[in-house]
User: What shape does this take?
Amino acid sequence: MARIFVTGVGFITSIGNDREAVSRSLRELRHGMVRYPPFDKPEVPVKVAAPVRGFGVDSPDPEDWTYPSEYRLKREVLRSLCPNALFAYCAMQQAIRDARLGDTDISNQDTGLYAASGGSPTILGRLLNQMYQQGVMRCPPLGIVASIAGTVQFNLVAHFKIKGVSCGLSSACASSSHALGFAFDDLVLGRQKRMFVVGAEDGNVDTILPFAGMRALSLNPDPDTASRPFDVARDGFVGTGGATVLVLETEAEVERRGVVPYCEVAGWGQASDGYNVAISHPEGHGLRLAIERSLRAAGIASTEVDYVNAHATSTPIGDISEVRALRAVFGSDIGRVAVSSTKALTGHGLSLAGAMETGFCALALREGFLPGSAHLSNPDPACAGMNIPRQTVAAEPRVVLNNSSGFGGANVCLVLRRA
Amino acid sequence: MMSDVPPSNEAAPNRAEVPPKPFSPEDEVAMRESLKRCSAATVEAAVQFRRTRDVALLPTIVLGVIERFVELELRPKLREGDDDLRLVEDLGVDSLTMMETVMLVEEVLQMQTNNDELRNLRTVGDVKTFIDCKVRGLPLPKPTRFLPVEQVAAVMPIQPPFLFINEAQIGSAGAQGKYKITGQEFFLQGHFKDNPVLPASIMLEALGQLAVLFLLEGAHAEPGKRVDPSRILFTSCEGVRCHRICRPGDTLTLSVRPRRVKMPLATFEGSIRVGQDKAAVAEEVTLTFAYADGATQTVGARDNAAAGAPSHPRDAAGGQPPLAAAAVSAS
Assistant: This one.
């Protein structure tokens, strides 16, 4: 079977807008949470979010937006972007540079792009308001492509002249892990030689606050503790946005181009809970099966796994469901394998989460560290006997898992191996 | 070109479908916000227009709005005031940008357009004329039509190797054509010895040919009359000046505008550019012409075919896709 490698990464995240900043935040456990000004109202019980820094994207007019000076976007590109497509555009440029890809490496029939984004509720809301208030013919012509789910790949595929496969994946918080999994399959099956995998979310009031109604958000007003996966006092997740782009390539391309990969993608697996539209199976049945399938597909025994980047979003039910799945997979070995949730630092990026955390694992594998699980003071009793490092530790992990679970009980596990 | 016609009272009943609303201070604030990326002159012209409905302000407003949507480096072109500038090819305005432009103009001028009306706008001049007619409530001019080489050859009484038009656009205000000097033209063998240069007489001939095409295809003819292709002849020219040597590889951009057309004489002004360089101008090129015997009702099928069936739209065979169609194909 063809071997597949991660050869480039690009980050626009709440903990850094490039690889170096992200790596530093992971090592020093610097989180991205703030008291979020738009939540500073008596009627909003949620106070903390983890917004992307360095971008001003609140104006309805993209030509008013501000973004870091190293990026240059023409009006004709900006006009069809939503905030998360702008983040993805910037992360894409980083990943291209990081993987040392030339124009012909990007735009050819063997290079494709899979993306995951919840679209832009903000832009869609504005568009509908404009349609109802000013008339159907008074809406911006590109309002649809700037807002609906799929907006990220519409824009990136057109602007970066992608000619291979392209598609958007939608499984809520498992979306970009699905995107990576199917990109892996296309490479293994010889359909493509190189794939861009993109996860992106706006991470603003309109993407985060609707989760308050389902009681999924933390009401903790303290940015230093609002996101604390596995802690007994956790009370919900903290919302974030941004974008991550990963470049996946076949071994033949890695050799032809002479690049040093971050890590190998050894395999993946998925399974569904078949249980509840929004609540994880209490025993983590779907996630357990996804992990087992991913290890089988990769030809790796659970005893070889050094680190698990958990999905754990800091919700009372979800974290424990995942702990039970991990116990079922690792059995008596559970005390050996390091488990942490980097969502303590970043917040939960929804469609962005899987790609972003795979990017973190790629950094950990190449640079030699295990990210700590921040803000953990009193572990939930259900975590007894587990190895949850509270600080980032220097280590040389060989095999790393990245879990993601989405609405409807969709579970994905990605297996990464040191290159 | 529009400002010299005073607003007429007859046009008023046909004017916009909706009578202009009073221009409130709130409207002005909103309009200034909408136009915030336009030049100060554009904003002031728009404010004045809403107060006075003075159509002399329209060119400033329309050009100002187009300019706002054109990339910075292309804006100097627009300021040269060439109505023949093509929106797509010369200004990089795609069909979606065209819609953004029209929506902003609609908002500022308080008018409405429909998709069909936008399909045929190809040049800056087309847009200016279109907006002018809409605001005055005049009938819209016949759209600019694009003729590829096959159609040019089908219409013209002049044929290769003496036809110096590769493609042409015919609008109500004039015609534009292109001719690429291939180097294979027979007369270049001797003009000059070992030094091929397009003769000035051929440049003038090319302008005359474009004027012939305009007469045959343009919208100027009296109703029910058709110009006879076999009875057009070159008569005179005045004020001809050549500015640039044209050689094989150069593409001539030919342009003619009618000054007076009244049987039996048609007088045009003409110019030739190569890229942005002025190559030649002719202050007057005059042709004689005559209408074909018999009215159009009696034109037989054979004649119709020879003339390319003028009653049918021709641009389906070539040119850019219609604006609205290009936009909706995106989904």
Summary: Chain A has a mean pLDDT of 97. The two ends of chain A are 16 Å apart (CA to CA). The interface with chain B takes residues 63, 74-76, 79, 137-138, 140-142, 144-145 of chain A (CB under 8 Å). Chain A has 13 helices and 14 strands.
